[in-house]
Amino acid sequence: GQQVMQIPQYQHVQEGEDFTTYCNSSTTLSNIQWYKQRPGGHPVFLIQLVKSGEVKKQKRLTFQFGEAKKNSSLHITATQTTDVGTYFCAAPPGNTPLVFGKGTRLSVIA
Amino acid sequence: EPEVTQTPSHQVTQMGQEVILRCVPISNHLYFYWYRQILGQKVEFLVSFYNNEISEKSEIFDDQFSVERPDGSNFTLKIRSTKLEDSAMYFCASTLTGGGTDTQYFGPGTRLTVL
User: Fold this and answer.
1) DSSP letter, residue A83
2) Strand partners, A43
3) Closest partner CB to A31 (pick from B91, B95, B101)
4) How far apart are CA A87 and CA A73, in angstroms?
5) Which of A79, A80, B7, B63 is most deeply packed, by most CB within 10 A?
6) In which element (H, E) is residue B24 found?
7) pLDDT digit string (tens) for A51-109?
8) What is the reported pLDDT for A66?
9) Is the CB of B43 less than 8 angstroms away from the CB of A88?
10) How far apart are the two ends of chain B, measured CA to CA in Å?
11) Cα B88 from chain centroid?
12) Contact list, B44 vs chain A (CB under 8 Å)
């Protein structure tokens, strides 16, 4: 079945540093979604990318979808302690359900 | 803002016992899902449900699992004879249309502990 690979698995940064997580698929994706899960919490939808080469921004977060629609990235500028959590990319192989990546756990050291 | 709710928040059970996890999806949503997340691992799809029947299910969703929408609001996941490896967070989710571009709204989860 479809797999979505995500790296790195863990990232520890000093507050104020930037952070990037990458998501890759061996197959072309119709769209990709990003979710954030706070420690002890549930996945919360952040954004969806649909178009080839699409870039979307949410304040300090920048999401990109590759030209071939096989990869995506999430970049956080100047991390804050509130950014702590696990960031998952997820993609539907056809329609739903979603196939999740393993996630990148972000720790921010104040 | 409407949200998905789940009960109980934590369920402890003995191996071999039956458990029922309950979810109330967002009221106007039509597609419902169960996912599970073993501690420290990724979220895994179990089953999707639409129009009172299962749409898709994963390999994890074997004969020990069943889902039901007993009334107009609840959506349940039953595990007939729990195993130790069923210990996980179980998340319910719902979407409005079920299309691949539709946002999934997750409930807060039920932590199932099988002893």
Assistant:
1) G
2) none
3) B101
4) 11
5) A79
6) strand B19-24
7) 999 999 999 999 999 999 999 999 999 999 999 999 999 987 655 578 899 999 999 99
8) 97
9) yes
10) 37
11) 11
12) 100
Whether residues A100 and B91 touch (CB distance < 8 A) is answered with no
Q: How many helices (H) and strands (E) does chain A have?
A: 0, 11
Interface-testing mutation among A44, A96, A100, A105, with chain B (most B C-beta atoms within 10 A): A96
The distance of A22 to chain B (nearest Cα, Å) reads: 15
Cα separation of B17 and B11, whole Å?
A: 12
| pLDDT reading at B58 higher than 80 | yes
Indicate which of A23, A27, A42, A89 best probes the interface with B, i.e. most B CBs within 10 Å of its own CB.
Answer: A42
Residue A28 has φ and ψ, to the nearest 5°, of -70, 135
| Both structure tokens of B35 | 């996912």
Question: Secondary structure of chain B: what % helix, strand, coil (to 5)?
Answer: 5, 50, 50
- CA distance linking residue B32 with residue A60, whole number of Å: 32
Give the model's pLDDT for residue A49: 94
> Which residues of chain A neighbour B33 with C-beta distances below 8 Å?
96-97
* Residue of chain B whose alpha carbon sits nearest to that of A1: B58
The rounded mean pLDDT for chain A is 92
A-B C-beta contacts closer than 8 Å: 62
Please answer yes or no on whether B33 and A96 come within 8 Å at the CB atom: yes
Identify the helix (H) or strand (E) that includes residue B110. strand B110-114
Enclosing H/E stretch for A13: strand A10-14
Contacts of B27 (CB under 8 A, 6+ apart): B2, B73
